[in-house]
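Researcher: Going back to the complex we discussed earlier. I've cleaned up the inputs and rechecked each line, so this should be the final set. Can you rerun the prediction on the complete assembly and write out the structure?
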Amino acid sequence: MHFEYQIEGGNFTRAGFASSEIKKKLKQLNVDLGIVKRTVVATYEAEVNVVAHAYSGTIYVDFDEEKVVIRLVDEGPGIPDIEQAMKEGFSTASSTVREMGFGAGMGLPNMKKNADDLQVSSEVGKGTTVQITMHYQNPNNK
Amino acid sequence: MTVQQLTEKLNLKVYGGKKGLGNEISGGYVSDLLSDVMGNADTGEVWITLQTHKNVMAIASLKDLAAIILVNNHQPEEDTLNQANEEGIPLLGTHMGTFEITGKLYELIK
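Model: Rerun complete. Updated structure for the full complex:
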């Protein structure tokens, strides 16, 4: 199963839509609730990051028999130093975004904590791609 | 305890999401940082916050929270209220500040 969702930079009203759709599909597939919860946290944070930082983005979701791969590709400013961005508390979010309770520098760390596998690649001035992989059955369930 | 019982005991306003008043409460979480709630709150908890925008409902829904309590007489924004009704997640309010309402909630469900 393949799904795509569009994300509009700056439009917080739809943030979480794709995460909610993915949650429903995982539940239909009877995936363990703990794994569904981790998927939701990682995906929501990734969605919010695109809304908060990028101009636009697309989420590509592929469910196969063993796993779901969620790839968020955005057009945006990119991340100059990914290692720094992964650190808890580091944020470049605007004051408006912070006032909403986002931008506390917890997004990427939350993704790392919850995803089975997280890949982040970025090109400054072009955009960022985040790929989250979740296995339906994980013997090392976090 | 259900959300309905909680609203009666703490005299909370019910702004919307009445369909979920029968939700069972498993605990509470207090934070105004959305990523903190996303990362650390758990199913069935009541979330106490001063954030009134629509994203609180997205988080409550994604995390299967029992209800949200807005402190200090903060009013929900219109689209927040609409989504609370759509999702059936109770959106509650109190004149109390965060410290006071948290203490009372803790006493009731600890």
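Model: Worth noting: Residues 98-109 of chain B form the longest helix (12 residues).
Researcher: Good, that matches what I expected from the previous run.
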